[in-house]
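Milestone 3.1: sequence recovery, worked example.
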């Protein structure tokens, strides 16, 4: 049976409205509700489904971040994962740094399958899975909307511009998850209490020999411009005239 490693990220909850800092240096997150990145939550659910079908023996969670990320790891453990690892760092985490940290952890854990969300909702890079596959020199299947395991191979249905694409990859492999793959389960209070007793190890990023120096410099963050007020038309002809006046037609 498979050993599945699921990488997750701590992000501002998608229901929370974020605001730009007055000095434009970034987004103000102090005091906001933080959650597991929704795409990563789908990855956890898929790993748990593999375990429930008898295809996976162990589901291991990992995240790269500061000590506060333990909260999200505990949530993943409450969903049903077996154990968790925090690669701790206070430095901002970029996709290449995370990919290198995961690559180093793979040498220790030896997973058969690595699952993670296709992108994080805070920066939308959508790069970590692809970078990890390249560093690991293993196959990748991105934007998965269906995942089937058959022995030492995985069949992945992925969404592309022209429709659906089905590919087969040899395991070990990296798979990134899309929204339509599954619906994550609701975590109940008894599972939350049980999760407190599950193992959660902390590993300093520096112990992996990873250079966390930033390669991306954010010069300024600006809030989107206010949306222009719309107009109401009484007929299709009036709509066509309005569009012509704006140069759309």
């Amino acid at each position: 049976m498979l050993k599945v490693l699921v990488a997750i990220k701590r992000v501002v909850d998608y229901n929370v409205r974020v605001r730009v800092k007055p000095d434009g240096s970034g987004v103000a997150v102090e005091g906001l509700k933080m959650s597991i990145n929704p795409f990563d939550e789908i990855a956890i659910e898929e790993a748990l489904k593999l375990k429930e079908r008898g295809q996976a023996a162990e589901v291991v969670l990992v995240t790269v971040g500061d000590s506060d990320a333990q909260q999200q790891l505990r949530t993943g453990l409450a969903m049903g994962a077996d154990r968790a690892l925090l690669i701790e760092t206070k430095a901002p985490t970029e996709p290449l740094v995370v990919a290198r940290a995961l690559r180093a952890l793979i040498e220790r854990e030896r997973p058969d399958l690595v699952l993670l969300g296709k992108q994080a909702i805070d920066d939308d890079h959508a790069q970590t899975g692809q970078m990890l596959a390249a560093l690991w020199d293993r196959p990748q299947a991105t934007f998965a909307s269906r995942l089937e395991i058959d022995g030492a191979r995985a069949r992945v249905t992925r969404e592309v511009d022209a429709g659906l694409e089905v590919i087969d990859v040899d395991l070990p492999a990296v798979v990134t998850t899309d929204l339509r793959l599954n619906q994550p389960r609701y975590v109940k209070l008894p599972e939350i209490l049980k999760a407190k007793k599950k193992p959660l190890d902390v590993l300093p990023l520096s112990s992996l020999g990873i250079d966390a120096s930033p390669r991306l410099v954010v010069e300024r963050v600006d809030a989107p411009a206010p949306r222009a007020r719309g107009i109401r038309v009484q007929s299709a002809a009036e709509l066509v005239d309005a569009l012509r006046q704006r140069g759309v037609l």
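The longest strand covers residues 140-150. The domain at 2-245 is CATH 3.40.50.620 (Rossmann fold).
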